[in-house]
Design a protein that fits this description.
By secondary structure, this protein is an alpha/beta fold. Helix content is 42%, strand content 12%. It contains ten helices and eight strands. It has an eight-stranded parallel β-sheet. α6 packs parallel to α7, α7 packs parallel to α8 and α8 packs across α9.
Length: 296
């Protein structure tokens, strides 16, 4: 079964370029490049990767596309550009010539006013330009910010949008029972009602109490599986994708632990054909990926 990891980050670490990497994250205060994950990726049987922006800098997209040139397993790039810029169409032109360029993302979760950002006229004009180019936009917000992006996601329905990290539910201190999960799940269902929105089962290991430094507890694992179940209930098997969130996942869990968490769930929750969709088919359809034969 082909496997695509739809969410990895790469960087050459410069502290001033990564304000979100704090001193409590020494695992990330170093270079993190495709070769650093190669052995773990091979061991997990992951054939290909989508690289996703981690810096809010103009050179980020070009940097990731250059890595794609050097590493055939990097079959897709979700880069960054300033969606407030009036010349976005011109910025996109050279990137669109690259076969790995699939879309853009902004670290929306760090915006002081998410609603103001997504409702800005310039941003909405840029989204129209992106969708005309058949480019995907990855939506990155915390659970409490989900209401602010509902209208935005509904407006931009000409191409795929992708919800990163299952909308980042606040797992610290809750056990995903229906009462605690209700606000997040209600918003998830609202987004899932939009047929052009996909969802990545990614990033949840670092929404747990990773600062304990003890890895995932059994309760954490069960909570994450419960979130996966609710995402499946909302989106169905044809709009879920696997993502590791490497190297950020290492704050809590190793690459193989994250992969095994998803694989164990998928084998229990999905049919064989649904597993193929989850591991690769949905990603190929959404990001229009071309995966070389056994890219790994």
């Amino acid at each position: 079964m082909m496997k695509i990891d739809t969410h990895q980050h790469y960087w050459r670490y410069q502290p001033q370029e990564f304000p979100w990497i704090s001193n409590s994250m020494p695992q990330l205060q170093r270079d993190c490049l495709p070769a650093d994950c190669e052995a773990a990726r091979h061991a997990a049987g992951v054939d290909a990767v989508v690289a996703v922006q981690a810096r809010t800098l103009p050179e980020e997209t070009t940097f990731l596309l250059q890595l794609a040139d050097q590493h055939p397993e990097v079959v897709g790039v979700v880069g960054w550009a300033d969606l407030h810029a009036p010349d976005l169409a011109q910025q996109l032109e050279p990137w669109c010539l690259h076969p790995a360029f699939m879309g853009l993302r902004h670290i929306l979760q760090d915006e002081a006013d998410v609603a103001a950002w997504v409702n800005a006229p310039a941003v909405n004009r840029s989204m129209q330009v992106m969708q005309q180019h058949k480019l995907v936009y990855d939506v990155l917000v915390f659970e409490h910010q989900l209401p602010s992006v509902m209208d935005f996601c509904a407006r931009h329905d000409a191409h795929w949008l992708v919800l990163d990290h299952v909308g980042k539910p606040a797992l610290r201190g809750w056990n995903a029972d229906r009462d605690q999960a209700r606000p997040w799940f209600d918003h998830l269902r609202q987004l899932a009602a939009l047929p052009h929105v996909m969802c990545k089962l990614s990033g949840l290991v670092t929404e747990t109490q990773w600062s304990r430094g003890q890895g995932l507890s059994l309760a954490d694992v069960q909570t994450i599986w419960a979130c996966f179940d609710l995402a499946l209930e909302a989106f169905g098997p044809q709009r879920l994708m696997y993502g590791s969130d490497w190297p950020v996942c290492q704050l809590s869990s190793s690459y193989d632990a994250v992969h095994d968490l998803a694989q164990t769930w998928a084998q229990k929750a999905l049919t064989n054909s649904e597993q193929e969709a989850f591991w690769s088919g949905n990603a190929q359809r959404c990001y229009n990926l071309t995966v070389p034969t056994r890219a790994s």
